[in-house]
Design goal:
This protein has three domains: 241 residues, no CATH class; 198 residues, no CATH class; 77 residues, no CATH class. Helix content is 81%, strand content 0%. The chain contains 20 helices and no strands. The two termini are 46 Å apart.
Length: 522
């Protein structure tokens, strides 16, 4: 294969993987809306209690183990790609998966007790089975990625997410119709995950065999399984950790929120319902964070240590542009969502419960996209272990803050804890990145103009809300939908006009944005 063809395949595969990742996250965010509508806040709470565990399983299957396997196979050379090697890798992964399965299965009563709800024992026990299906799909994703062939991973990821969403919604419908108990939503999530991983495995296996990626040759030497623990298991965990910012925040809430609310004075049923209401913010946070960070990173070519060594000034400019895009997107999304949250809450979840605490939670959007972007940049410089450590420590910061703040301020305490934790992680990433860049200034942003642009948008949206109140019945969901969509479009236009007219983005910075660039020329 010529270099040009190989490069085209790599770029095409990388784009397919990026697009599949974004679409999967969007699907993941959106299916939870009908899930809550059908099962109520208690059903949504139950799902969100087991979701972080399922999320960890899918991070290992999608990002962690495949990337670690791909790197290991690349380091060992093509001659080592053979069935015996693959079986050894599969064996060490399956051993780790069995360990996770047994730990979660046997300790489920203890974990449910820590979560403050003994009814979660069976749901936790059931979702533990998902870990046993990870090695199958992870192995073949790693094999194909080692050949710089990303399409199988991208396609299998889309298959997984669509199947999961479909089966979970079917389970929610059965609960809504009274055929299943509300806590059975966790069983539906488990069944959906197992079926999704199984079908994904069958697809990628057939896809791989058809294209002869599997090598039937024999090895000149064998590698002891113990030698695979570090490059596959440990490396896989580190890589997975770097994709878990919001997942870890949800994991901390799963273990600390209900006990904290019980201490605050709520009954168990009130606490579980409150947790379900608070979890409404997660799909919105996930959607904005993924779209914002992916958009910023896609507009600017990836920054790596090699780029830095070749052209220091060009690399700094790319970093500044990436962070500037990210901040403008984050500020606009945060202010817009904060202003419209009562209507968004009513539209998506059928009432305005929890709006005040969810508005506080929305403030974390100022930092989540920037946190993901700075972490990705640090990983490009080779600081993957450090970004994973920072996230892991962030989990414990969130746990401690929840422990102290929720008994004092209830659900608002959980929101404040999330915002504070994300700020701490973001600032730590920023300080580490600044150290890597030898103190070069990273943010070159006209902050006053950005603040004024966001205030102008907020004022415009507030005036629009007050005016629409006299002409639209917000009890009508279709009318409310049209109002929210219209408000989002108008808010974006107002914000974009101020950004362009006040030269918050320069002519060169507008170049990758055709629509805004056209406005500028106009």
């Amino acid at each position: 294969m010529s270099n040009d063809k190989q490069n085209n395949q790599v770029y095409r595969g990388a784009f397919a993987l990026l697009l599949a990742g974004i679409l999967s996250k969007v699907i993941s965010a959106f299916y939870r809306i009908p899930l809550q509508n059908l099962t109520g806040d208690i059903g949504f709470y139950t799902y969100q209690q087991v979701y972080p565990i399922l999320g960890i399983a899918f991070m290992l299957a999608l990002y962690g183990f495949p990337a670690a396997i791909s790197k290991f196979l690349a380091v060992n050379g093509k001659e080592q790609h053979h069935q015996k090697m693959y079986i050894s890798i599969f064996t060490v992964m399956m051993g780790f998966a069995i360990f996770l399965f047994l730990t979660l299965f046997l300790l489920s009563p203890v974990l449910a007790n820590w979560m403050g709800d003994h009814l979660l024992t069976d749901p936790l026990r059931h979702v533990s089975w998902v870990f046993l299906f990870i090695p199958f799909v992870a192995l073949f994703r790693g094999i194909t990625q080692s050949d710089e062939w990303m399409e199988p991973t991208a396609y299998s990821q889309m298959i997984e997410q669509l199947l999961r969403a479909t089966i979970i919604i079917v389970t929610a419908i059965l609960i809504y119709q009274g055929h299943l108990h509300v806590y059975k939503i966790a069983d539906g999530a488990m069944i959906a995950s197992i079926i999704a991983l199984s079908i994904s495995f069958i697809f990628i296996y057939l896809y791989t065999k058809k294209n002869s990626t599997w090598n039937d040759g024999h090895s000149s030497r064998s590698i002891p399984i113990s030698n695979l623990i570090s490059p596959v298991i440990v490396a896989g965990l580190i890589i997975s950790m770097n994709h878990m910012l919001l997942l870890l925040m949800q994991l901390a809430d799963a273990f600390t929120m209900v006990p904290g609310l019980l201490t605050f004075g709520e009954t168990l049923r009130e606490a579980t319902a409150t947790k379900g209401v608070f979890d409404r913010g997660q799909p919105l946070l996930q959607l904005v964070t993924v779209v914002g960070s992916s958009f910023a990173m896609a507009l600017v070519p990836q920054v790596t240590k090699i780029n830095w060594q070749i052209s220091r000034e060009e690399t700094i400019e790319k970093l500044r542009l990436t962070t500037k895009y990210c901040i403008l997107l984050s500020v606009g999304a945060t202010v817009g969502l904060f202003t419209l949250f009562p209507e968004v809450n009513q539209l998506l979840f059928q009432n305005q419960l929890g709006t005040s605490s969810l508005r506080i939670l929305t403030l974390s959007l100022l930092f989540t996209s920037l946190t993901v972007t700075t972490a990705s940049t640090l990983q490009g410089f080779g600081y993957m272990k450090w970004t994973a450590i920072i996230l892991f420590l962030g989990l414990w910061v969130k746990m401690v803050l929840n422990y102290f703040l929720i008994p004092l301020w209830g659900v608002d305490g959980a929101a404040i804890a999330t915002v504070s934790t994300v700020i701490i992680i973001c600032m730590t990433n920023f300080l580490l990145l600044r150290s890597v860049l030898n103190g070069d200034r990273l943010f070159v942003i006209p902050w006053i103009k950005v603040i004024i642009a966001s205030l102008v948008m907020a004022i415009a949206l507030t005036i629009l809300k007050q005016t629409a109140f006299y002409f639209i019945s917000f009890e009508n969901r279709i009318a409310l939908f049209l109002f929210v969509i219209g408000s989002v479009i108008i808010g974006f236009i107002v914000y974009a006009i101020v950004v362009v007219k006040w030269r918050i983005l320069t002519r060169n910075e507008l170049a990758p944005l055709p629509l805004l660039n056209r406005w500028k020329k106009g």
